[in-house]
Amino acid sequence: MARVQASDSLIPRQVFEVPPAEPNNSAADSGSQGSGVKLKKQIGLLDGVAIIVGVIVGSGIFVSPKGVLQHSGSIGQSLIVWVLSGVLSMVGALCYAELGTMIPKSGGDYAYIGTAFGPLPAFLYLWVALLILVPTGNAITALTFAQYLLKPFWPSCEAPIEAVQLLAAAMICVLTLINCYNVKWVTRVTDIFTGTKVVALMVIVGAGVWWLVSGNTELWEKPFSGGHQNPGYIALAFYSGLFSYSGWNYLNFVTEELKDPYRNLPKAICISMPVVTIIYMITNIAYFSVLSPDEILSSDAVAVTFGDKMLGFFSWIMPFAVACSTFGSLNGAIFASSRLFFVGARNGHLPAAISLINVNCLTPVPSLIFLGLITLLLLFIKDIYVLINYVSYVEALFTLISVSGLLWMRYKQPKTERPIKVNLALPIIYLIVCLFLVISSCKQEPFVVGLGTIIILSGIPVYYLTIHNPVKWLADTSQAINLWCSKFFICMPNQEKFD
User: Fold this and answer.
1) Which whole-number Å values give the CA distances from 373 to 26, 338, 382, 385, in the listed order?
2) For 380, which DSSP code?
3) Lower Cβ count inside 10 Å, N or C end of the chain?
4) H helix intervals, 214-230
5) Furthest-apart CA atoms within the chain: distance in Å
């Protein structure tokens, strides 16, 4: 990536010299490996699979079937959308496997867009991720967790919004603390809750199979009746489906902490994506076997409605399962997305305080706390769910740009080493589908697209005022914050060199 020089960023790269690691500091020794303070490679193959599955399988499969059915119009067409969304996500993930092994840096789309198109487009991705993509997704997941954990206490009505917000805030604080303290704790929590949510989905599948075997097949007599043909509605159905698959690129955010990324990144993708697609497919078949389209469309949480109908006294399992699922999903999302802002700050696109690493835990504590604070603020927006459409459009747009970067680098840098090189047809197919989704959404929801585009473009003046030609008082303020964070959080600048 075209690095922004120290004179162009908000503050100098390093505010003080880094002392040599003490011989008795085992954490520093193991993390630095003789080259200074840096993030440790602690994520193995199974951890990588758990992160991808754990982040993807959040609240989406328990809630989103309603959105897919609403825009597709029939259960048969809904299943096709779910399968194709999984296939499309798999194609995108394979394209990102090539990008991630060719550019083995943390930061995902930010690193790839910067390498292909330069610092300004990379900053715009970072800008919109900071304002919309990451904190909005995390806040929605936290609120979903709180709503379903409190559901048994308010079975016949919605829980008070204050209780939901406070519980969501407590969850964010707990997970931020875990992420600050120890990466191994993060992976352990991810592994446990990934297993829990898969078990919950297997309960749904088992109940659905029992229902079908008992002869209740009337809902499958006309599976394609009422299907929508309008491309705009089809695009919106895919948005709902893809929202449930979102997170497949999160492992690319933490490439620098992945053991043997050239082998484990593509393996984790190739294992996790088919698993998620199969789980989603059979879970939806169970939903559609037990619940009529009207019941699904009138439900705010399909899994809870399913549990009320099929599990009787044990129906409380479903709200609990949704809470566990969202807890594990948010844990993985906080871990991965904090690395995005860490890398952005390391490259001079955010205040350098965010790129500091705690010398004891070897985690980006300021980045995690920064992300946690933004997410906490979003919890108290009156209707945060209205931002989902903005998230979907912006995410599709920048994924399109990242895959375009893959094709551009194939043309401009044909001799660059690519440990993985996917068939050229895959990025072309993915590019065409993303173009269809973006163009269709422009026609179907022009206001959402227009406002999302304005937010993206608003990053251009911010870039020129704070990075390309920074205002002096901003640079001085940022340096003061950096010094304070270094002392308060016992942090040092990242010492690993990146070109």
Assistant:
1) 31, 12, 17, 19
2) T
3) C
4) none
5) 74
Burial of 26 (C-beta count, 10 Å sphere; 0-12/13-18/19+): exposed
Tens-digit pLDDT profile for residues 295-312? 888 876 788 888 888 888
Token pair 């640079």 in the structure block, residue: 475
Classify residue 65 by burial, with Cβ atoms within 10 Å: 0-12, 13-18, 19+.
buried
Q: What are the C-alpha distances in Å from 79 to residues 58, 68, 76, 366?
A: 19, 9, 5, 43
| Count of beta carbons in the 10 Å neighbourhood of residue 469 | 9
DSSP 2: -
Query: Which residue stretches of 298-363 are H helix?
Result: 302-310, 317-346
Q: Which of 172, 127, 101 is nearest to 453 (CA)?
A: 127
**Cα(80)–Cα(114) distance, rounded to whole angstroms?**
35
Q: How far apart are CA 190 and CA 196, in angstroms?
A: 10
The pTM for the full model equals 0.76
Q: Please, are residues 406 and 420 in contact by the beta-carbon 8 Å criterion?
A: no
Q: How far is CA 490 from the centre of its chain?
A: 28
Q: pLDDT by residue (tens digit) across 87-118?
A: 998 898 889 889 988 888 878 889 999 999 99
Rounded-to-integer distance, Cα 444 and Cα 81, Å: 18
Give strand pairing partners of 258: 43
The residue length of the chain stands at: 499
Mean pLDDT rounded to a whole number for the chain: 81
Give 18's pLDDT tier (boundaries 50, 70, 90). very low
- Alpha-carbon distance of 307 to 283, in angstroms, equals 13
Nearest one of 34, 118, 9, 105 to 354, comparing CA atoms: 9
Q: Rounded to whole angstroms, how far apart are CA atoms 378 and 382?
A: 9
Q: What is the pLDDT of residues 165-189, one digit of tens each?
A: 999 999 999 999 999 988 888 888 8
Task: For CA atoms 56, 59, 61, 67, give the dihedral sign.
Answer: negative
Query: In whole angstroms, what is the distance from residue 441 CA to residue 332 CA?
Result: 29
Residue 418 identity: R
Q: Distance between CA 319 and CA 209 in Å, rounded?
A: 21
Distance CA 12, CA 184 (A): 32
